[in-house]
C-alpha cells in the first residue's frame, strides 16, 4: 500500500476478501484518486490485467462516470479488453471519506476467458436442429420400406376384415400422431393394408382432427 491516505487502508481486507471469494481469475485494484497519475495503490491477482502499483487509472471516466449505468457511486459489469486480448468483466465503486468527498475507487476485474471457452463448449453441446417436416415428404432410399414395416407392426396380427370402424380410426390416429402420413404414399399403403379406400382414410383423418379440435 503506497497511498498516504490512511482511510483507503480500511478497504484492503475487502479487496482481499473479494479476490479470495472469486478465485484467481478475479483481480481487485484499489485507487487513490488524490494522485491520478499514480492512482493504483494496491492490487490482488494482478496477473488478470497486469495492473501495477503506481500506474494511473484507465477506465474511470469513460466506462464508469460517463456510463448510463452509473448509480449510487458505482458502475457494475462493464466490458473491457486487455492488451493481450482478454475479455474482462469489470465493476467499479467510488470510495468516499467521512466528509463525503471522493478519495478513491475499488475496481473488480474478472477474466471471462475460461468461462468463454466453457460457453463455446456448452453452446456446441447444446446445439440442436428442429426441422419442420411438411406433408407428402418424398422418402429417401429405403425409408418407405421401413415405414411400411412399421405400419405392418402397428396393425399387428389383427384381422383387417373383422376390425370395426372405431378400431380402424384409433389405429389411423396412432399412425397420424407418429408421423406416418407425412410420407408420400403412406396413405395409399395404409388404405391397402386396412382394406379400405384412400378416401376413407382421409375421412377418418378429418374426423380425428375435428374431434381433437373440439
UniProtKB/TrEMBL annotation:
A Gene Ontology molecular function term of the record: DNA binding
Pfam families membership: HTH_22, PAS_6
Domain YheO-like: residue ranges: 8-119
Record key words, sorted: DNA-binding
Occurrences of domain Transcriptional regulator DauR-like HTH (ranges): 147-206
InterPro entries: DauR-like, DauR-like_HTH, YheO
Matches recorded under PANTHER family: TRANSCRIPTIONAL REGULATOR DAUR
Protein name as it appears in the record: Predicted transcriptional regulator YheO, contains PAS and DNA-binding HTH domains
Lineage: Bacteria, Bacillati, Bacillota, Negativicutes, Selenomonadales
